[in-house]
Amino acid sequence: MKPRERVEAAISLDIADRPPVGVWGHDYLREWSPRDLADAHIRAQRRLGWDFVKFQPRATCFGEAFGSEFRPSGDPHQFPVLVRPGVQDPADLGLIGAVAATVAPLADQVKGVELVAAAVSPDVPVLQTVSVPSAWPTSFSPASPRQSSQ
Q1: Which of 3.20.20.210, 3.40.80.10, 1.20.1260.10, 3.40.720.10 is the CATH number of 3-148?
Q2: Alpha helices for the chain (secondary structure H)
Q3: What is the model's pLDDT at position 22?
Q4: Cα–Cα distance between 73 and 96 in angstroms, integer?
Q5: Whole-number pLDDT of residue 93
Q6: Do 99 and 26 form a contact (C-beta atoms < 8 A)?
Q7: 51, 83, 90, 134: which has the highest count of C-beta atoms within 10 A?
Q8: Cα separation, 114 vs 125, whole angstroms
Q9: What is the pLDDT of residues 5-16, one digit of tens each?
Q10: Domain definitions of the chain by residue range
Q11: Buried b vs exposed e over 37-54: b needs ≥16 C-beta within 10 Å?
Q12: Are 24 and 56 in contact (CB under 8 A)?
């Protein structure tokens, strides 16, 4: 079976020759450039023969989109450093409004997906990661659990 057929069979609850395979993860240094992030996804898909690419945007994407500022940690395995939270107090989360998809971190995400989709075979689906909104506050607040360990 081709990768797309395998993925479509799994989605349809049909029998495939094997389960479709794809993996995601963060490279906290390469995530700051749509091109570098796309290249990492493309190389991994080609090297490992993934059936689909689960595009993973940079870890700070939504925090940045809603006002937080981060800088790279300097380590590809360490979460970026929160420079300025977008929300000073968790009680202010309700004040966050909608943002346009054209803000830099979201535009970077779209560009990365475009680059990956253009580079991999049409037989390899590219899936966009959809984040759970309840996870986003860890990128807004100065009390973020990820930041407290640094």
Answers
A1: 3.20.20.210
A2: 3-11, 34-48, 61-65, 104-119, 145-148
A3: 92
A4: 26
A5: 77
A6: no
A7: 51
A8: 12
A9: 999 999 999 999
A10: 3-148
A11: bbbbbbebbeeeebbbbb
A12: yes
Return the structure tokens found at 87.
């929300």
Q: Which residue has the tokens 């560009």?
A: 111
- Report yes or no: 55 and 116 within 8 Å, Cβ to Cβ: yes
Residues 60 and 66: their CA atoms lie apart, in Å, by 10
- Look at residues 86, 85, 83, 129 and name the one whose alpha carbon lies nearest to residue 106: 129
Token pair belonging to 134: 């309840």
Please list the pLDDT of the chain residue by residue as tens digits (150 residues).
Answer: 999 999 999 999 999 999 999 988 888 999 999 999 999 999 999 999 999 999 988 888 888 988 889 999 999 999 999 998 888 887 877 788 888 989 999 999 999 999 999 999 999 999 988 776 556 555 655 554 454 444
Q: Which pLDDT belongs to residue 24? A: 83
- SS3 percent helix, strand, coil of the chain, rounded to 5, is 45, 10, 50
DSSP state of 48: H
Say what the pLDDT of residue 99 is: 87
Q: At what angle do helices 34-48 and 104-119 cross, to 10 degrees?
A: 30
